[in-house]
Amino acid sequence: MLVARRQQANQSLAPYIGLALLLLSPFLLLLDAQRLQPGLVVLGLTGDYYLIGAACHVLLTLSALPALAIKYRRVAANQRLSARLLKLHLYSFFTALLVLSLVTILARGAFMRIACLLVVTNFVYVVQWRLRAAINAISFVAGTALIFTFAALGGAPRLEHFVDLLTLVVLCVIGGAIVHRDRKLGCQAQYRESRHLSRLQDELNVAAKLQQALLPSPWPATAAFAVHGMMRPAQDIGGDFYDHFHFQDGGVCLVVADVCGKGVPAGLFGMSAKSVLHTTALQLPRGVAGSDAGALVADANNLLHQGNTEMLFVTAVYAHYQPATGALSFVNAGHVQPLLIPRRGPPRWLDAPKGRALGARGQQRYAAADVALQAGDTVLLITDGITEAHDANLQEFGLARVKETFEGVVCGGPQACVNRLLTAVDAFTHGLAQADDITCIALCHRPEAAEGCPA
Questions:
Q1: In sequence order, which residues have a C-beta less than 8 Å from that of residue 288 and are 6 or more positions away?
Q2: How many CB atoms are closer than 10 A to CB 392?
Q3: Residue 347: phi, psi to the nearest 5?
Q4: Measured between alpha carbons, how far is 266 from 272 in angstroms, rounded to an integer?
């Protein structure tokens, strides 16, 4: 960006610098001619210094020609020719200016050091334009004071002071043009960047709404079961997701998952994993999805691993539930274990062999665990965004607090369970920003059979 900015500024300023050099060239030639008069010293250049200075004057005048040529339409339309002319102008201009400055410093001293400092700082694009503008102002004021101080001290011809003042004005005009152009380019770049960031934010907002829309809508509670889920992303796009859908045999699938990472890549991979799990389950023959949940998850893992060049992975719990019998078969792929909140008795974590996260490596085996739900029992599936939520002292909410949240309380349905857990997490964090996505889904078996668990 810095190179393009410098190229654009130089190409825009070159014609104006060339015009200023052409306007200055008659004065330079006049001063060189005056040098032939005996006893007159111009610019403090004597002997060999004068010959070198006169050559630099000629080179400065010639450097104006390619700079002015850039302004023509035919030349401007040819980028290669414009770039070559710009290089020719800059090389000749800076060479002449550098040599002339060195010669003048040797001959005159303090004033030209200030003038050369002004020219150099204006072309250092790393320095902020405000600082360069301040250096220009200081150099102009100090240089002018030096010129009139030397004039008051005596002896030097007026032509020398006129040349000093003219040189200072020309340098300040060139420096001011560079600073103005640099500020304009900076404002334009800042405006384009703000517009680009605004468009990106709008796109992220749309993507976040689409992601929420792709999550399943809550099912109306029935006499057989009730399901409720939610996903609260830490950023605009979350890496967590949940899903639930029906099978042809009347069974119900529940999925909760957490993709490694956050933001857009995690969100895209999460939607891909959701689609793969959904499609793989529905394509199985009738009755197979519930009888071999481990094989289903293994097939989904192989599909996610194919073409996974970014090596993303997703932890998940896949559960198959039969509303008629209350049988629940679930597979844990590197995820947090489900929590069983029984109608009577303390809550407990459901143990199952933990398999490898999905997509990390192909050809993996997954084992399913079975549990028989009684009327009024609730199964809660969560992500580690809940267990790893921390307070101001960096203490995590943890598995123990999740379990304590439901000890000694009557389950009021899946939505009440989800809301109770989120309320406990928010009270623990005291309003701190989320460090990770928070997702949970709850299923209540035969809700009308449990006291305080309405249908």
A1: 296
A2: 9
A3: -70, 155
A4: 10
Dig out the tokens for 302 from the structure.
């192989």
Q: Which of 250, 248, 272 is nearest to 259 (CA)?
A: 272
SS3 217: coil
How far does CA 123 lie from the centroid of its chain? 30
Cite the DSSP H helix spans in 343-455: 384-387, 398-405, 414-429
Least confident of 84-93, 137-146, 157-166: 157-166
CB atoms within 10 A of CB 433: 6
Distances from the Cα of 397 to the Cα of 230, 307, 391, 400, 407, angstroms: 19, 36, 8, 8, 16
Nearest-angstrom CA–CA distance, 113 and 109: 7
> Residue 204 burial (CB < 10 Å; 0-12/13-18/19+)?
middle
| Ordered structural domains, the chain, with CATH | 2-193 (no CATH), 217-449 (3.60.40.10)
Q: How far apart are CA 256 and CA 277, in angstroms?
A: 11
Taking a C-beta distance cutoff of 8 angstroms, is the pair 122, 174 a contact? yes
User: Cα(57)–Cα(43) distance, rounded to whole angstroms?
Assistant: 12
Inter-residue contact 255 to 231 (CB < 8 Å): no
Name the nearest CA neighbour of 160 among 173, 179, 174, 147: 147
For the segment 365-418, what is each residue's pLDDT rounded down to a tens digit? 999 999 999 988 999 999 999 999 998 888 999 999 999 999 888 777 888 899
Supply the pTM of this predicted model.
0.60
Structure confidence at residue 425 (pLDDT): 93
Four-point Cα dihedral 261, 274, 370, 294, nearest 10? -90
Closest CA to 64 of 12, 11, 21, 97: 21
